[in-house]
Amino acid sequence: MDHLTKDPAFIAATFIVIDFETTTPAGYRPEPVEVAAVWLTVRGGTLARDNRSFQALICPPAHAPVTPLDAHQTGITAAMTAGQPDANHVLAQLDARVGNAQVVLVAHNAPTEAGVLYDYRSACPQLAATGFLDTVKLARAAYPQLASHSLDSLLIHLPVAAPRGRHRAMPDTEATAAIFTRILTDGPATGSWRTLADLRRAAGYKARAALPVQDALFPASSQP
Questions:
Q1: What is the pLDDT of residues 81-125, one digit of tens each?
Q2: What residues are paired with 41 via a beta bridge?
């Protein structure tokens, strides 16, 4: 990671790793039932977590209840989300935590998280307009020999200990953060990237809310 920590843009950036757990009702867009985020900044020549984090359960709308299948996959039950604030309230709180930092969002399979933020862009305008780095794309560049670049496959390959509560938002966020920092360490050895601009070219995902109207309405399947 030495080359990256000599790049002024990388040093100045605040990386927010984010994950949603969602329910996906037939005929509708995914609805969040939990969100978590952790903050990473460069300190002492190393990218590391600071003391900021965010975690909240979310009550989904009536058309997107938590199903038994959802509960089996994530451990989040309908009873756990009942009485929780809705997504507008929660994402407005998270948006307010961003501040004026030069933020880069990070997620594993970023289009999923970016899609949720776009759907609730009126509540979280800053987050919805912030670009992502996709750790799936970064992993493909760093470890092209792997047959799968899923979160579980990367945890096994690196190896990084799988967190307790895997498939809940905070454990998955922590796993993504660990994988992200490990990829940034390994990538320069393969000549993959030396600057934040290199990372954006390799794995950037532009926020739809920051695109021209035509592109936001008809987004490409993969955006640089």
A1: 999 999 999 999 999 999 888 999 999 999 999 999 999 999 999
A2: 48
Task: Calculate the CA 137 to chain-centre distance.
Answer: 13
Domain ranges in the chain are 4-217
Q: What is the dihedral of CA 189, 6, 16, 93, to 10 degrees?
A: 180
**Cα gap 36→114, rounded to integer Å:** 14
What strands, in cross-sheet order, belong to the sheet with 13-23?
Answer: 46-57, 31-43, 13-23, 102-107, 132-134, 204-205
Predicted pLDDT at 218: 47
Which option is the CATH number for 4-217: 3.30.565.10, 3.40.220.10, 3.30.420.10, 3.20.20.60? Answer: 3.30.420.10
Q: What confidence tens digit (pLDDT) does each residue in 122-137 have?
A: 999 999 999 999 999 9
